[in-house]
Design goal:
Blueprint lengths: L1 H40 L11 E7 L2 E8 L1 E3 L4 E2 L6 E2 L4 H14 L24 H5 L24 H8 L16 H15 L3 H13 L5 E2 L13 E4 L2 E4 L14 E3 L1 H12 L6 H4 L21 E5 L2 E10 L2 E8 L4 E7 L7 H15 L2
Antiparallel strand pairs: 1-2, 1-13, 3-4, 5-9, 6-9, 7-8, 10-11, 11-12, 12-13
Protein name: Beta-lactamase family protein
Organism: Leeuwenhoekiella blandensis (strain CECT 7118 / CCUG 51940 / KCTC 22103 / MED217)
Pfam families: Beta-lactamase
């Protein structure tokens, strides 16, 4: 017993020394990642008196880096904080795609359904499938490329009116023949969500996604609603910064009208990883590269670009809307998530987020 009592302090000392060493290694590793990420970001976001951005990096669902840069409001000289709410532009498409898959899981539609099943009068609707809307392969004219878009930019439009705005335009190609990024397809998807669910798109997303997974600071965008911690958007001109151009959010609608924070976007990514919104076999459809009618593969699933960095599979999507830019990258093999949100379209986080993801991928190791 005496020997045992003598050994206990010895092993406790060794154990505590091990914990101390582990702590030092962990802190050193964290500081190494933080330093490398800081060096990347300050190359673009290097002026504290300009609009800025917020960046978050997570590994295995836990944040390892979360910082804000620049100003959230120039007129009031408000410093940016990680809690700021941004417009996320086309990252909205992720939510629209998952909403469609939720309706499919409920048996209310099939992604192979022609849109004529729900919109009988849509031109060539028998030949256009929901799958083609999701994968930007419908051939429908993208309304953002129409010169007359300026006529309605600030007008409040119903989803039906938005669809009517572009539906009679000549198609760019036959359905399923090519991939061409297309906002019109995702506006149509939002309209289908409303027709099939009997709810507005905003209500459907709020109830079935935001509320369901605790995204408490995410919204269907509004310039009139008072939103706590809203970041204000800017453009840069030769003579300085100006407030973002006004837009009615009924125009981008389900293709680009959501707002969120980096913390809520991490909740979104974690919910997908944990299959909280869809069964695994149904969620997998979003992350499977699709094919054109010719059999040619495209690097897009449902709401995400699906790319390969060498042997590393990557899911990514950006967003751009007046005064704001956004980018998110996820490396499923190592559960690395990087999100960057900017409140000036002069500061794009797109390549920066990719570069950060590559640095973290290297440092995390196998």
């Amino acid at each position: 017993m005496k020997l045992l009592s003598n050994l206990i302090p010895f092993f406790m000392q060794k154990f505590l020394s091990f914990l101390g060493l582990l702590f030092v290694v962990t802190v050193s590793f964290s500081q190494s990642i933080e330093s490398k990420i800081d060096q990347l970001i300050v190359k673009e976001f290097n002026n504290t008196d300009e609009p800025g951005g917020v960046f978050l990096v997570a590994v295995e669902g836990e944040s390892i880096y979360r910082k804000a840069f620049g100003k959230a409001n120039l007129a009031l000289a408000v410093e940016m904080t990680p809690e700021q709410v941004f417009q996320i532009g086309s990252m909205t498409k992720q939510f629209t795609a998952i909403a469609i898959l939720m309706l499919e899981e409920q048996g209310k539609l099939s992604v192979e359904d022609p849109i004529s099943k729900f919109l009988p009068d849509y031109p060539n609707g028998d030949a256009i499938t929901i799958n083609q809307l999701l994968t930007h392969s419908s051939g429908i004219k993208d309304f953002t490329r129409l010169k007359r878009i300026a006529e309605i930019a600030e007008k409040e439009m119903t989803p039906e009116e938005m669809v009517a705005f572009f539906k009679d335009e000549p198609v760019d190609f036959s359905p399923g023949d090519a991939f061409q990024y297309n906002n019109s397809g995702y506006v149509l998807l939002g309209y289908l969500i409303e027709l099939i669910s009997g709810e507005t798109y905003a209500d459907f997303i709020e109830k079935n996604i935001f509320d369901a997974i605790g995204m408490e600071h995410s919204y269907y965008a509004s310039d009139r609603k008072v939103i706590l911690n809203r970041a204000y958007g800017y453009h840069q001109k030769s003579y300085g910064f100006v407030n973002k151009k006004p837009i009615s959010f009924s125009i981008p609608f389900s293709s680009g009208a959501l707002m969120s924070t980096v913390d809520d976007m991490l909740k979104w990514q974690n919910a997908l990883d944990q299959n909280l919104l869809l069964k695994p076999e149904n969620l997998a459809k979003a992350f499977t590269k699709k094919q054109l009618r010719t059999g040619e593969a495209i690097e897009y699933g449902y709401g995400w670009h699906l790319k390969d960095w060498g042997e590393t599979a990557v899911r990514e999507h950006g967003g751009s809307i007046f005064g704001f830019k956004a980018m998110g990258v996820y490396i499923p093999g190592k559960a690395i998530y990087v999100i960057g949100l900017s409140n000036c379209d002069c500061h794009s986080p797109t390549q920066l987020v990719r570069d950060i993801a590559k640095v973290v991928d290297e440092l995390v190791g196998e």
